[in-house]
Amino acid sequence: MGNVLKSLLEQRHLQAHSDFVAEYNRCAHELNLARRPEPPTKAQYYRWIGGNVKNLPRPHHCAVLERMFPGWEAKELFGPSFPELTARHGPAQADDELLSDIAPGLDPNLLSGLWASCYILEGTRRHVDLSTVVATKYGMTSINYPPEPRAEGHATGHITDISARLFGRYLMGHWKNRNDHYYFGSVHLTVLPAENVLDGYYTGFLHDSHVVSERWRWVRIDPESARGVDLASLQLSDPDRVHDIVMGHAQAGGPVSLASVTDRLAELRK
To answer: 152: burial class by Cβ within 10 Å (0-12, 13-18, 19+)?
Structure first.
């Protein structure tokens, strides 16, 4: 039987040791510790997620894991997993009190899964990604890696974390750029009928005296088309192609296939 750590890694498609190590190293770098911790070996990692840990790992490992999964303590991550626990979210924070009487208009679990999203960057450039959404008690969190996000005119796109709550059928929350922590902002999306499209806006800034707002649209990826696929083996298709698919998708349309917005890296290298 696995533990909470295993369940959360599966939700993010990070259960492969190589993917976990890449995420571990990113989070360790963000902590800016005096000495960079080494990720667990493959054998140690599989003991972690297999529930075969009697005592918590060393403090530096716990710090990295808690950075990787905000809101979770290390002792919770190594505890037994069940759906109610991995979908849980803490009580409303002080800055949510104004809207605390507005309950979610749908079950947040309906939003779980893989989504293709696109928005405009720097006024004209199209940015596209695949985001893995994890439901919480009151909303969702997401991470848009792997595969690597893409943006027109840039070598890579922006790796972004999102945390949002559901108020009625509206997702309202915040995003933060992992590539450059200077950039962060807010997000406001409506969950359209059939729960396969999210449509709305993000706000951000170019510098400390210039706020920007651009449209942000999401379309669900058909779960069957992504079953068993290693996302790290994929590359997002050209940003203009993915942008047209997402922005042109019908409001009440069904999911799109993973193959329609990605290419396999092995085939691109032939």
So the answer is: middle
Closest to 70 in 3D by CA, of 174, 146, 147:
174
pTM attached to this predicted model: 0.67
**Is pLDDT larger for residue 72 or for residue 197?**
197
**Structure tokens, 246:** 């997402």
Domains of the chain and any CATH numbers = 4-88 (no CATH), 108-264 (2.40.128.120)
Nearest to residue 31, comparing CAs of 232, 143, 175, 181? Answer: 181
Residue given tokens 């509206």 in the structure block: 170
Q: Are 140 and 104 in contact (CB under 8 A)?
A: no
pLDDT in tens, 76-132: 899 887 664 555 444 344 445 688 778 889 999 999 999 999 999 888 999 999 999
Which spans in the chain are helix H? 4-11, 17-31, 42-49, 59-68, 74-77, 83-86, 223-226, 239-247, 265-268
Distance CA 52, CA 46 (A): 9
